């Protein structure tokens, strides 16, 4: 038994039909994808990958990259996908922390990463945006037959890094059962069938694009229009061939700002799903007015995959994330006392179910603080559950910015800014942004008698930080506003700077 490989990969053996449609209209059948996963599984084993070993990937979105994920499942390896925007400094941290046996990267990153992987005896393979590179050279001579390695439901299938309020990234450990139970629930509640064709333009290094979109479509035995990234032009080109689409709110606001996105273009569609960041009620309404479709909003996180969803039938209520998925329990508690609150009261959202992760990689103490004794995971999101059971996310207890669906923890950026020359301290906040929902802005205090410029701060940060984390604007103050406990008043800073930021956009 290998729960995920049995459920997602083995069924490909009987799929002579197309499973993936690329942006250049070339098609891959299920059998072709299956054989490719067998070849990659053999390549991984040849490099010493054993069950439980980590295999890291930082590459563009290609069929080979997707096959690498499926090959990891077959070999019993733990898949570790990494955002393509991560800098070599960030990559070094992840590789050092996860200690993978194999890293697959873009040829452009090879020189930088090899310094580190060579020292640590890690095999580095390359894969570029058209599927070429040293991994491909090894695929060409590899056998296609491969016997799946046995795994139990509790064994790890993936580690996904998520940043935290301390500024240090943590690897969320997801088991076969976590991912399979979630894919099964979503197939059921969103009614995915073999007739579905999903328009896929999300990255495949996060929960949304990989474990929601890909796992669900493989489980349902549907087809996937596999676009390299989100582009309004490509969405408009491929929509007529799709039945369904999943995206972050930015996808939908960008589509709405294009006149070609019409009722006629979308009339055949079965489902539009949104998540990873709050969908504004006004976007929900504008989408319905334009297309006649109500977007189905759901809520999840890296540690839990999906927790709640608006109903397929029944009211998809704007401003809410719907009901807990089958088998998932949700409750709202008092942040300080942990007491369970009644309907409509606002508190911290806690969840429990087969979807909830196994803990943070090599951080047992941190893991313990995030769970209640009865097994509920403390999400850090502030929520309200109404008398009908609809969950609404009304805020965040964690200091977190969500920009275009990417999570950014201010602490990580503040640490870097505070280390810059002439800087005394800083506060990083999220300001409303018409495209990304929220944008990162920094407020900096210089050492007395010294100065720096916004440009210097931004340029320095780009060296170590992924570009989506870099502040879109930097403002200066003589001191940061603090309460009597000495805590920086970020709400005050947001009120002070968001208008100036918006005016300058
Ligand atoms: C790109 N940039 C961003 C950004 N994406 N800045 C802030 N936030 C982002 N999300 C930077 C670019 O590097 C560039 O910087 C500038 O902004 C403009 O880039 P662009 O060309 O407009 O961006 P684009 O490439 O189109 O990307 C935007 C996007 C992308 C929204 C399509 O960010 C995206 O695919 N987001 C999806 C994220 C996602 O999958 N989240 C799921 C997480 S899972 P410069 O300096 O070069 O000009 C999760 C759990 C759950 O949260 O519940 O699902
Ligand atoms: P991540 O850690 O990247 O997986 O992001 C998870 C976080 O994204 C959650 O804790 C929420 O704060 C947020 N999130 C995901 N989906 C939604 C949604 N539909 N509405 C509001 N916030 C969301």
Walk me through this protein's architecture.
With 505 residues, the chain is an alpha/beta fold. Among the domains are: 1-17 and 27-151, Rossmann fold (3-Layer(aba) Sandwich); 401-497, ANL, C-terminal domain (GMP Synthetase, Chain A, domain 3). The chain has 16 helices and 24 strands. The chain has helices spanning 3-9, 30-46, 63-75, 88-98, 110-119, 134-140, 176-189, 207-220, 232-238, 249-256, 263-266, 281-291, 364-369, 410-418, 454-464, 490-503; strands spanning 18-22, 27-29, 54-58, 78-81, 102-105, 123-126, 156-162, 170-175, 197-200, 223-226, 244-247, 271-274, 296-301, 305-309, 323-324, 329-333, 346-352, 377-385, 391-396, 401-403, 406-408, 423-433, 437-446, 473-476. Strands 2-1-10-9-11-12-13-14-15 form a 9-stranded mixed sheet. A 4-stranded parallel sheet has the order 4-3-5-6, with helices on both faces. Strands 16-17-18-19 form a 4-stranded antiparallel sheet, with no helix packed on it. Strand 13 (296-301) and strand 14 (305-309) form a beta hairpin. Bound molecules: malonyl-coenzyme A and adenosine monophosphate. Adenosine monophosphate binds at residues 162, 207, 275-278, 297, 299-302, 321, 379, 381, 393, 396, 402, 407. Malonyl-coenzyme A binds next to helix 8 and strand 13.
